């Protein structure tokens, strides 16, 4: 009888957690992270990458992405059970500046990025890196 309690009670608890209102967004909801290269440099050649982007989380390394002006890089993620999902990026503007920024933080972005197709959008520009969650208004994100 004791063994039955040890098996059944955890299963009932896990099953009940799946039916909580937040469970679907935590475990099954995809968030789309976009980073767009909006750098305009007079010194770079057309179709020559002027931004090197390296994004990763604790468990997933997306790797280096050389990007030309106007190029958009997108990946998807889900929020883990503990809501600690974090993706950070190192943006290197070739010959100019470098900046590490948090592209997705579960507790910060869960609500604000769900407003427009579950997308967090970033624009890398000469003056700073901007954030957008509604495809209309860009907010100051990170200075160089």
Automatic annotation (TrEMBL):
<dbReference type="InterPro" id="IPR010264">
    <property type="entry name" value="Self-incomp_S1"/>
</dbReference>
<keyword id="KW-0732">Signal</keyword>
<keyword id="KW-0964">Secreted</keyword>
<feature type="signal peptide">
    <location>
        <begin position="1"/>
        <end position="25"/>
    </location>
</feature>
<comment type="similarity">
    <text>Belongs to the plant self-incompatibility (S1) protein family.</text>
</comment>
<keyword id="KW-0713">Self-incompatibility</keyword>
<dbReference type="Pfam" id="PF05938">
    <property type="entry name" value="Self-incomp_S1"/>
</dbReference>
<protein>
    <recommendedName>
        <fullName>S-protein homolog</fullName>
    </recommendedName>
</protein>
């Amino acid at each position: 009888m004791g063994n039955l309690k040890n098996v059944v009670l955890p299963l009932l608890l896990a099953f009940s957690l799946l039916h909580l209102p937040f469970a679907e967004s935590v475990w099954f909801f995809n968030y789309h992270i976009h980073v767009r290269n909006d750098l305009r440099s007079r010194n770079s050649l057309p179709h020559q990458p002027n931004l090197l982007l390296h994004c990763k989380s604790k468990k997933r390394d997306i790797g280096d992405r050389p990007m030309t002006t106007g190029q958009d890089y997108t990946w998807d993620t889900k929020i883990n059970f503990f809501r600690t999902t974090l993706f950070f990026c190192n943006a290197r503007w070739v010959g100019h500046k470098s900046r590490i920024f948090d592209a997705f933080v579960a507790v910060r972005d869960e609500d604000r990025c769900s407003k427009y197709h579950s997308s967090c959008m970033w624009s890398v520009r000469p003056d700073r890196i901007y954030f957008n969650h509604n495809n209309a208004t860009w907010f100051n994100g990170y200075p160089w």
